[in-house]
Amino acid sequence: MAENPLSSAVEFAKMLTAGGFRLDPLDSAPSIEDVRRLAKRRLPTMAFDIIDGASNHELTREENVSDLREVRFRPRWLTDISNVDVSTTIDGQTLERPYVMGPLGLQRMIGGEGELGAVRAAGKANIPFTISTASNWAMEELADQATGPLWYQLYMYKSERIVANLIKRAKAIGSEALVVTVDVPLNGKRYRDHRNGMSIPPRITPQNALEAIRHLNWTRAIMRPPAIGFRNLKDEVQGNNAVSHQEFVAKYLANLTLTWESIEDVRRQWDGPLYIKGILTPEDAQRAHKAGADGIYVSNHGGRQLDSSPSSIRALPMIADAVGDRMTVIFDSGVRTGDDIVKALAVGADLVSIGRAWGYGNAAAGEKGVLRVLDILDGELSLAMGQLGATRINALDRSFVEYPEAWHGQGIHREPEPTAVTEEVTP
Ligand SMILES: Cc1cc2nc3c(=O)[nH]c(=O)nc-3n(C[C@H](O)[C@H](O)[C@H](O)COP(=O)(O)O)c2cc1C
């Protein structure tokens, strides 16, 4: 029987509206790459590049992502996946998911509230939020907004007094882990920032003046008080804005004589989990262990420091093999999908730390943007686990993936460091 055209039009309209209307592109962004595009649209180039850019030719930044794509899954079909559990336990902390939000400084440069919205989002999602020493809000100001676990990331400045004070304050706000970043003895040279005049102080060029006018919301947000600076140091540094703070840090706090003995000092001051961030070789992983650290971040700072460092995923297998069960291995750099998280865990990490992924969300829409990013990653993570046939995080191992043999050292000329010789020669 022929259908009445009116009723079929009504049925069609019903079908169209069944899924509801989505007017906010963030709500329908299916991937971190889509969120990145929204961030790019919202920000002037000079601000977007602060997050997106990396050092020199950005070889390492690109390889972080492309090498993760080299890891392929080996699915195990017809496994009972009615109950996939992505929770995990790391050094006594039970986590709802196998990843944490890593330290990103300078978040007010992307406009909005900077780290404040992000720490609120972390609380709502109950994911550890790592406060950076270079954050634009003081750790106490962030702790006031936090309803979830906090970790604190420390830069080892020249002044032992300032470092001891930062550690004491991190304890006072209830930080559950201390992350010491060791790959910034010198700041990487970021070509994009140079081209954009994005130094501290910024260089005003016709291009960025025009962009500031075209992005008035951003311009208003960065001009809102308090003046943008490194507020964790506000009682220590001279001046009250990023320019004077940066000058002070470069002149009085940069530490070019730092060695592993300083990590032993930190160990004496911190009872909780202590992680060293920026490890790319088994040798340094072993040094971190000797200095008393509980774990390491296999990380190249998202390619923002030494360009042509290996991608983190390429460095991971040999480091994971070298430390075995003696240390917690946290993977960082290049994570853009839930699949990436699963890959890193399968190759040998115990936990993953995300960087730009949440930074793009924060840049696109503050708290709401970060929540969207976590939602995307959670969904992709569970989907990948289910499709793989892995129902628990600690079931993930190398049998679920394949990746180039060269990452275990084959076919690559790589001489061991002459560490033992140096140690014997010391007078
Ligand atoms: C804008 C920005 C600021 C960062 N600030 C810090 C910081 O203050 N301390 C730190 O240890 N790492 C910092 N990082 C590095 C991240 O913690 C992380 O190692 C890196 O983003 C990982 O790479 P991915 O973004 O590709 O995942 C920063 C990264 C970005 C993009």
From TrEMBL:
One of its GO terms (cellular component) is plasma membrane. Glyoxylate binds at residues 132, 155, 190, 301, 304. Residues 24-406 form the FMN hydroxy acid dehydrogenase domain. It holds the Pfam family FMN_dh. Keywords: Flavoprotein, FMN, Oxidoreductase. GO terms for biological process: aerobic respiration. Its cofactor is FMN. GO terms for molecular function: FMN binding; L-lactate dehydrogenase (NAD+) activity. FMN binds at residues 103-105, 153, 181, 277, 299, 332-336, 355-356. The active site is at 301 (proton acceptor). Belongs to the FMN-dependent alpha-hydroxy acid dehydrogenase family. This is Alpha-hydroxy-acid oxidizing protein. It comes from Candidatus Brachybacterium merdavium. The lineage of its organism: Bacteria, Bacillati, Actinomycetota, Actinomycetes, Micrococcales.
